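Appendix B. Chain record.
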Amino acid sequence: MIKRNIFLCGSLTALLLTSFTSCASTTQVNSSSLQAPAASVDSAPASQDNTTTGTSSHVYVTDIEGNTRDLADFAWAKKYPSLLDSFASRSEEELTGFSFNTIAEENIVPKGEPYEFDIWGQTMTVTVQSVERGSNITCIPADKISQGERFLGTMEDGQEYLAVTLSLTNNGDSPLDLYLNNVYIRCSVDGQVAKGPIGSEAVTSDLPLLPDDNTNQFQVILEGGETGTYSILYYVNSQIETGDLYLYTNFPGYGVSEVTTAFTPVSEQWLALE
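Structure tokens predicted for this chain:
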């Protein structure tokens, strides 16, 4: 089980979700076919000169199969061109070995609908109850927000708060030792999972305030049959619409699986926020 700690130095928000590839899961991989941008070997200049200025934005990368692709061809880049800005200054080495995720509609759990999954020999259920975003958040105490900002850093330009309230139910008989910062923000447009500065990891929650040196700021213990409601705060790119944002819950703490193809379908269920 992964126990993650909020106490990280500096701001991790700008590129935290840039390199998301694929996570292991006990859920079967969805076989639905999604349209992916074609390789752009012929159209890419020999020097792979990346430009993201004016109305023409091109970011040429090499995927793990050796194909050259223009990130500007992806649906998320067409809708949110500013996501490409973070790639403009990267070295050629940093623009190689890319892999991409797709997610099928069947893997999306609508907001308000319960999602039940296996965890350590029993099951639990998670449901998105409400979403709040903007400069003022009411579901997280101000002292908790200040504490989170001390350790993760304050929001960067172009970000705003996003708070998600979840209902968690332990359907088994044994207690579940959970960490709310094992819930992650993802972005997908037309089934193509976005790269770039989407948002941060969990900043804080509405759990009772603990001393700064306590390493279990996000810990929740749910007894058998117990239901709890918790709010989690993130920083999120203010340009991205709520309808394109999702939560990936990894309470069991699965590691990242090996990626061998340029495009990999997401095998998990993601929770819609709108």
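Further analysis of this model is presented in Appendix C.
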